[in-house]
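>> received
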Amino acid sequence: MGALSTGHLTDDANPFIAFRTLLWSHHRAMAAGWSDARYVDTVRRFDDAVAAVDDHGFRTTPLVRQTALADAIGQTGGIWAKDETGNVSGSHKARHLFGLALHLLVNEVPTDTTLAISSCGNAALAAAIVARAASRPLAVHVPTWADPAVLDRLDDLGADVRVCERRDGEAGDPCILRFRELVATGAVPFTCQGIEAPWTIDGGRTLGFELVAGLTAHDRSPTRLLVQVGGAALASSIVQALTDAVDLGGPDALPGGRPPLVAVQTEGCAPLARAFNRVADTDDPVAALAERDGPHMWPWDDPESAATGILDDIAYDWRPVVHDMLLGPVPGGPVVALETDVVEAHRLVRTHTSVPADPTGTAGLAGLLAARRDGCIEADEEVVILLTGVERA
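>> returned
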């Protein structure tokens, strides 16, 4: 695990055990009087239950230098890719939900309390798998156009699927509105949106910790990290984890420093990029980010892209991501990929790698294509992308 193994990590294959002393759920458990052994045993038993539902539990996912892919687009500095397609439920989303479920265990939330989520894709599937493993009831709020195959799988997993039609005069995502109504009656938000369920960021941080450990083991310090953004919980989780890991890991953890974040959105749905530009144009970005109901983030009209998993009309966790890119220790910025970039990135990954990622999962590469064309990233830079979701039949 590289330099971070000195007091912070173990060599366990399960990231929720390997990185446990960095997780907020572990801190809360220790504060509640748990022993470390009890925490580890709880994670192992829970992970075994997940494996019984999804055929395997959580393991460190591969970080691979994708030489053929880099050659195909002329990225002479190289491309490293973190592959989440073999993770529980086929995406990074399960990390968020498993981490959140650990907090429910530590906080002794009654197991008959209904969990609630708004999603019709990877987040819903991950939530249903983790909830089934935890023997907790789950209500999934889905749109009228949800994929029937996903709905069938949710039904197989025992989820309570609720189709949400838009009501007359209603603004915003009706699935989110119905989800919030259920939470208001006592349901627990079980979602990948940190603004709705802050502890969901904890599980997502394991991906960032793995990334630091992998890059340190390979002695690499890339110049850019491209992360596709929908609701923005993934990007928020990773920048927090990378900052924590570098701060705690000493000089051997990414000796070149943390790579700047490039948040990737598509031209068919780019509310975070829009908010970044509006905040950057203010006289006082710090004050602008502190405004609870400021004029910088509002629903995107008619989101559309082949990268369906990042079509959140609002980037719910936008503030920490914009803050990091604008005011953080290694400022970065957003990039908006054309739809042709989204389609081409998917083709390139499926042609030049063995990773079975879908267009959402390859959207980070779409951002690289756009950034190269715009002159924001040079061909000789070494970059990292995330391949976050498996392509389902």
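>> Residues 63-91+199-387 form a domain with the Rossmann fold fold (CATH 3.40.50.1100).
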